[in-house]
Design goal:
Layout (H helix, E strand, L loop, with lengths): L3 E5 L11 H9 L2 E4 L2 H10 L6 E3 L7 H11 L4 E4 L11 H10 L3 E5 L4 H7 L8 E6 L4 H11 L5 E6 L4 H12 L4 E6 L7 E6 H10 L8 E5 L11 H13 L2 H12 L3 H13 L1
Parallel strand pairs: 1-4, 1-5, 2-3, 2-4, 6-7
Antiparallel strand pairs: 7-10, 8-9, 8-10
Amino acid sequence: MESALFIVATPIGNLADISQRALDVLAEVELVAAEDTRHSRQLLQHYAISTPMVAYHEHSDERTPGQILSLLEQGGAVALVSDAGTPLISDPGFRLVRQVQEAGFKVVPVPGACAAIAALSASGLATNEFLFAGFLPAKGSQRETRLRELASYRGTLVFYEAPHRVADTLADMVNVLGAAREAVLAREVTKAFETIRRGSLAELEAFVAADANQRRGEIVLLVAGAEKVVSELDTPTATLLQQLAEEMPPKRAAAIVAEFSGLRKKQLYDYLLAQKGS
């Protein structure tokens, strides 16, 4: 085996979701650097792989990278794995990758499962453009600020979320992004109790609140992109909309014009807000 750091994707739940190439690499390298050696040892034991392991995680000091670089200098090979899925996705492995590259050694990806991509593929939301935003901040105020920063993004938003925070996060999403925004809860993907539920943010908030099981396990939240805001309207429609808005609440004016114009009520309402702010 060539001397290199191999970035090896492992299953996110179902142990059968691992490639033969990944198994060959894990068996042939001199060392496996794992986020949690106890967790990864279960996978290696399942496939009767006895390669030595070392812990590498966000709290690791420089001794572990030093050990890895020393082994590479001697012509050895090392595999990097995370607890589940593709390493470096919401974990600190990129620092090790940079150190290895800067030392002049090769880094080789061994692709496989990724919870974000698996959830996106089965979500029913648009996949031509998406943004993986990782974990939202734990504190409510910071979480809302981050959601406001992402609110106008036109592609699908993909988040990881901790089970004990998912209810609060959905509530914040309803507040910031709107109750009607389409979204998907993907929970325990590839595992026995897999859930993939699509609906409005309000519907998902109610679904999670009513079923404690939906607040357990590994969770991916996906949110449909923002709709295009109408920046220009033909003169008659714009005039009618603005005149009605002078006599009644903007939402009511938007609803009336939407009924007769075929335009979406939310787009017309957003147009009024934009005109008011300009």
